[in-house]
# Entry
Amino acid sequence: MQKLRLFYCIVAAAVLVPVAAFAASAVSEGERLGRPCAGCHATDGYAPGEYIARIGGQNAEYMTKVMKDFAAGKRKGSVEMSLLAKGYSEADLAAISEYYAGKPWKNSTNKIDPKKSAAGFKIAKENGCFDCHGTKGEGMDAYPRIGGQNSGYLHEVLKRYQTGKIESEEMALVKDMSDSQLEALAQYFSGIRK
Ligand code: HEC
Ligand code: HEC
# Structure
């Protein structure tokens, strides 16, 4: 009996030591699980192009919600994101979102057309975009940051709210806008620098 107990102790120790060593390493669960994301969203989520969203420094609550929506097939038009998000549990998606949200935000470097941007500012003021997204488009909690986001992505996602591919009560206000109005809004918010 005594021998058997000793045996269990040794087995337990052999199992626990590597687990402890792993936990002590600096890599968080969100960072580990979120590594494949960098393939498209770039290191730390600072996607440099126009059409891929920046996710480094996005608001955590919004990002977690969006990832769950992708997994549930609620955001139509993005096959790659839906397939990817389905591969994770809800807890994993929250951990990945916390990880990217914890990065400091860095503004887009996309080229902005000053005329379109000025028109976008007027449309934004008239339609109360700042009421929900903040005066610099920084958002908060469930309201996404849109200031300094990449311009092509903003234009595309606005079109999806307009056509109903993504359903959102709050964003229904863009349904009556023209494509050039959406483009102007995208140019304005993308060009915000703070
Ligand atoms: C194969 C390329 C690819 C990979 C890998 C990828 N994404 Fe995406 N992601 C996209 C594209 C393209 C979009 C633009 C949105 C769309 O098309 O709906 C996007 C959009 C998003 C959005 C929405 C952004 C917003 O502001 O609403 C989030 C959040 C996101 N991705 C997070 C992730 C996370 C987290 C991972 C890793 C688990 C990941 N992505 C992996 C291509 C990718
Ligand atoms: C009543 C509050 C409210 C108002 C007003 C509002 N928004 Fe939004 N907006 C939201 C919420 C909430 C979401 C996230 C919806 C979702 O889950 O898809 C959102 C999402 C967005 C997104 C997608 C961000 C991303 O990362 O994918 C863009 C772009 C956007 N809004 C731009 C605008 C513009 C431009 C205006 C003004 C014309 C505006 N919003 C007005 C609440 C609002």
